[in-house]
């Protein structure tokens, strides 16, 4: 197995670790999770650890793509597993944030629905030997998702000093971009989808 694929698998392995750390019943076991007050932001140690793991996982996403392209190590497994790892990571974080009311459950529902529809379109295209490349809106969606996760985990730090809920603002912007991106994929592929019916 080549290095890019190992990095992709590492990202997938980090997902259940994230879930365990975030959902662990610390209080039940008498564990007092430290809370840090920085620039009007109350940030728990759990969120800081999740942020670090998320940052590491995001870096593996960047490097596996760079290494695969530069070293010509692109494989069928990589093409299949890389986007799955990305969606697992980001959607898991959003579901965790929704589980404790940090964000509305509507947000991960919309994002997961969008990803499912786009994946279905890509599957139909693959059966017709058509490759649907990642689009600008799709990449923008991913960037805004990552930005919103960072601000949500860090409780709006450093914008907390001016009491700006940047996490909530950015996650809703990301949600709107997800919807627009999904519609864009569908509109560009509707003729191909119609032919498949």
UniProtKB/TrEMBL annotation:
Its main location: membrane. It is found in: Membrane. GO terms for biological process: phosphatidylglycerol biosynthetic process. It catalyses: a CDP-1,2-diacyl-sn-glycerol + sn-glycerol 3-phosphate = a 1,2-diacyl-sn-glycero-3-phospho-(1'-sn-glycero-3'-phosphate) + CMP + H(+). Its EC number is 2.7.8.5. Pathway: Phospholipid metabolism; phosphatidylglycerol biosynthesis; phosphatidylglycerol from CDP-diacylglycerol: step 1/2. Keywords: Lipid biosynthesis, Lipid metabolism, Membrane, Phospholipid biosynthesis, Phospholipid metabolism, Transferase, Transmembrane, Transmembrane helix. It is an enzyme of class 2 (transferase). InterPro entries: CDP-alcohol_PTase-I, CDP-OH_P_trans, CDP-OH_PTrfase_TM_dom, CDP_ALCOHOL_P_TRANSF_CS, Phosphatidylglycerol_P_synth. Gene3D superfamilies: 1.20.120.1760. It comes from the Bacteria. GO terms for cellular component: membrane. It is a multi-pass membrane protein. The chain crosses the membrane at residues 12-31, 43-63, 88-112, 169-187. Signal peptide: none annotated. Belongs to the CDP-alcohol phosphatidyltransferase class-I family. PANTHER family: CDP-DIACYLGLYCEROL--GLYCEROL-3-PHOSPHATE 3-PHOSPHATIDYLTRANSFERASE 1, CHLOROPLASTIC, CDP-DIACYLGLYCEROL--GLYCEROL-3-PHOSPHATE 3-PHOSPHATIDYLTRANSFERASE-RELATED. This protein catalyzes the committed step to the synthesis of the acidic phospholipids. This is CDP-diacylglycerol--glycerol-3-phosphate 3-phosphatidyltransferase. It comes from Faecalibacillus intestinalis.
């Amino acid at each position: 197995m080549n290095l890019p694929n190992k990095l992709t698998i590492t990202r997938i392995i980090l997902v259940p670790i994230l879930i365990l750390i975030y959902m662990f019943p610390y209080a039940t076991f008498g564990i007092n999770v430290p809370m840090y007050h920085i620039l009007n932001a109350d940030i728990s140690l759990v969120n800081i650890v999740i942020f670090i793991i998320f940052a590491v996982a995001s870096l593996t996403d960047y490097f596996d793509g760079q290494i695969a392209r530069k070293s010509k190590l692109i494989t069928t497994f990589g093409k299949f597993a890389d986007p799955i790892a990305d969606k697992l990571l980001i959607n898991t974080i959003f579901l965790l944030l929704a589980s404790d009311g940090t964000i509305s459950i509507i947000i991960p529902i919309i994002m997961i629905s969008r990803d499912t529809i786009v994946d279905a379109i890509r599957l139909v295209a693959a059966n017709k030997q058509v490759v649907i490349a990642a689009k600008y809106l799709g990449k923008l969606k991913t960037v805004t998702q990552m930005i919103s996760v960072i601000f949500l985990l860090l409780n709006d730090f450093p914008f907390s000093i001016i009491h700006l809920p940047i996490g909530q603002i950015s996650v809703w912007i990301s949600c709107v971009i997800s919807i627009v991106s999904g519609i864009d994929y569908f509109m560009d592929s509707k003729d191909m989808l119609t032919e498949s019916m």
